[in-house]
Amino acid sequence: MSNASYRDAIFSTPLDRVARFSFDEQVVACFPDMVRRSIPGYGQILGMLSLIAKRHLRHGAHIYDLGCSLGASGLALAGALPADAFRYTGVDVSPAMVEKARDTFSTECPEHAMTVLEEDIRTLEYASSGMIILNFTLQFLPPDDRDVLLARLYAALEPGGVLILSEKTVDPDERDNAWRVERYHDFKRANGYSELEISQKRTALENVLVPDSLDALHERLQTAGFPRSMTWFQYLNFASLIAFKEA
Ligand SMILES: Nc1ncnc2c1ncn2[C@@H]1O[C@H](C[S@+](CC[C@H]([NH3+])C(=O)[O-])CC(=O)[O-])[C@@H](O)[C@H]1O
Ligand SMILES: O=C(O)C(=O)Cc1ccccc1
């Protein structure tokens, strides 16, 4: 597959039937543009990963990036940390994503230890790890599968390890939720998406991206075993949490 990256125009023409959103070749080809224009705070969250790793990761420890897509988190870490600071394993179930992520790592950071596995994160056997990143991935799993996965990740973390969980969220207060969603749509318009694109993508994501509330996410982390979690970043209906395993 080509490594060129295109502008996201997937939902720009009227579709008779809007198919369920999937991470296929068409999405992969424009993915960097799509996330940049559709996830408020995406760049800030990536930029913070290496600063968190510097404070919490033992030198040379292992990092998992689950649902790594094109490996943007790995690239952000490799750009900011020396090659001996960490070993990285990205995991994604989409073959097109995995192929392109591997290409990117071998050309952009050949000195760093970057592995990409084409696996379902629900069935992967986890090795011990110092930091686990779930950047906008848990939201795509069926809600019933989320607690089981988080409990397995808690078990895989070393003592003193951290989990970074970034998600689109829903606000249980209907009025506040409506305000966040409306301003999110303004954010998309300001980034060049049309009304048609916004509404067709919303349809494509129905029952595919099922957001939890921030409270529900903290509760899931507690149920999984984490004694402490906090929201370290929030921008409209998008948030990032950090959960700590006891040292
Ligand atoms: N069960 C699964 N197993 C493995 N991968 C999965 C599964 N379900 C979905 N995925 C993968 O999770 C990724 C979600 S995108 C993550 C962005 C990235 N983290 C980034 O920081 O750029 C989020 C978004 O596009 O909003 C896709 O690549 C899916 O193939
Ligand atoms: O575009 C949206 O509505 C989102 O929630 C963000 C997003 C970004 C990339 C793929 C799927 C969802």
TrEMBL record:
Its EC number is 2.1.3.-. Transmembrane segments: none annotated. Keywords: S-adenosyl-L-methionine, Transferase. The keyword Magnesium does not apply. InterPro entries: CmoA (IPR005271), Methyltransf_25 (IPR041698), SAM-dependent_MTases_sf (IPR029063). It catalyses: prephenate + S-adenosyl-L-methionine = carboxy-S-adenosyl-L-methionine + 3-phenylpyruvate + H2O. S-adenosyl-L-methionine binds at Y42, G67, C68, S69, D120, I121, N135, R202. CDD domains: AdoMet_MTases. Residues 63-161 form the Methyltransferase domain. Catalyzes the conversion of S-adenosyl-L-methionine (SAM) to carboxy-S-adenosyl-L-methionine (Cx-SAM). Belongs to the class I-like SAM-binding methyltransferase superfamily. Cx-SAM synthase family. Homodimer. This is Carboxy-S-adenosyl-L-methionine synthase.
